[in-house]
Amino acid sequence: MNKRKVQLRQSAHQAYLSSIPRVAEQKPPNIVLIFVDDMGYGDLSCFGSQAIHTPNLDEMAEDGVRLNNFYASSPVCSPSRFGCLTGRYPTRGFVHHVFFPKSGSLAGRMINRFAFPYGVRGILPDEITVAEALRARGYKTGIFGKWHLGDHSPYLPNEKGFDYFFGSYYSNDMQPYAYYRNDEIALEAPADQTQLTRRLTDEILAFIDANKDQPFFVYYPSPFPHHPVHASPQFSGSSNGGTYGDCVQEIDWSVGAIRKKLAEHGLTENTLVIFTSDNGPWHEGSPGLHRGRKGNNFDGGQMTPFIASFPRLIPKGIEVDHAAMNIDLFPTLLKLAGVPLPSDREVDGVDILPLLQGQESASPHEALYFIRGAEIFGVRASDNFKYMKKDRSDNSFYAALKHGPFLFDLNHDPNESYNAAAHFPQKEKQMREALESKQREMKANPRGWR
User: Fold this and answer.
1) Cα–Cα dist 153/132, whole Å
2) Which of these, 221, 230, 222, lies nearest to 284 by C-alpha position?
């Protein structure tokens, strides 16, 4: 299977980008998307943490909206980043696993070889990223931090819509861990990780300074608090959550510095700032009261904190309980920028601006699917029932066993503690059939071409 090559639709990809009208007189909003790594739902004080103090993010939540049921599109890094940037479930691009360095360990190279079909080693060239669409619209685009969607051409950030790149190609536990400025090494491996949050923040502030008079898109995929966690000396010992908490509090400082810079240039009113995480917490961190952690499809593995502020369009102090997913960011950001969606492919996300404004009375999704690898393991319906098919145990003592299927009534059991299938047999049947139907659809048309 891996010997075959995927057939690309490069002409359709380029035709779409060429069709996007350039910015005219009215300036569309600036966008800052902060996408941290492995932060748990309960790691911010505005989401319940008592060990970690995050005053800047708390203030951002007071100034805008907090989504209490926001999911990553995968419980691990690379697939979730694919979903966030393309608006499509990760299996659409055969991003079934985490990418490992091309020149890294033997184990990593073997995972690359066998986990990804058709020789895929990064985000495919015919996938459309939000950065590509915004750049075609006339935005200046920059990425600062962790890419993790391929470490060689044609998968690099500058080849997928970013005018400027300062960051790493993969996770901070992978070697060699160097930092690049576009295609040149800026920080030799091993980069001093205690200084990364400050270096990234300085780069972002300089980018905003340089582009304050034109629309810009800042994508800030922080390398933290992914393990191994680090904090600068200024934040070491600052929290009651160990080095992990210190690291999160330094991220909070970074968010505050970015918001202060926007205010300095009078850009606050016309800038959408989003903060969320790529999946749930790994070795440390709090999933809140949710079951599971990074790597599984229970809510603790995929439900993440989400805060957005945009004074021009989002009222202050809103909390929304309806479910959404990071695949929704692509269509939402394009709509705000005045960019039509591509018509040649399935875009699984939907525009959630009405949700962010508190105008929706239910989730905009009839169903959200929980995927690991190429397989769908769960589905959440708009009435807040969640079906999980039989899967390996999340109890490490019984890791060799499988359990399920489960039907959870999240209205009364948000911790996914009790199997309600016996009480709602028709609901279980309906949701199982919906999952199986979606699986067949994706198998028949894996790329989602129309």
Assistant:
1) 16
2) 230
The Cβ of residue 180 has, within 10 Å, a number of other Cβ atoms equal to 19
Each residue of 130-152: b (16+ CB within 10 Å) or e?
A: bbbbbbbbbbbbbbbbbbbbbbe
Is position 97 annotated as part of the catalytic site?
no
One-letter amino acid for residue 417 of the chain: S
- Per-residue pLDDT 10s for the chain (450 aa) are 455 788 899 999 999 999 999 987 678 999 999 999 999 999 999 999 999 999 999 999 999 999 999 999 999 999 999 999 999 999 999 999 999 999 888 889 999 999 999 999 999 999 999 999 999 999 999 999 999 999 999 999 999 999 999 999 999 999 999 999 999 999 999 999 999 999 999 999 999 999 999 999 999 999 999 999 999 999 999 999 999 999 999 999 999 999 999 999 999 999 999 999 999 999 999 999 999 999 999 999 999 999 999 999 999 999 999 999 999 999 999 999 999 999 999 999 999 999 999 999 899 999 999 999 999 999 999 999 999 999 989 988 998 899 999 999 999 999 999 999 999 999 999 999 999 999 999 999 999 999
Q: Which residue in 44, 38, 78, 52 sits closest to 283, CA to CA? A: 38
What is the C-alpha to C-alpha distance for residues 252 and 197, in angstroms, rounded to an integer? 10
Of these residues, 77, 96, 247, 365, which one is catalytic?
77
Bond prior to 190 in cis (omega within 30° of 0): yes
Which of 13, 53, 96, 148 is an active site residue? 148
Task: Count CB neighbours of 217 within 10 A.
Answer: 27
Decide if 423 is catalytic.
no
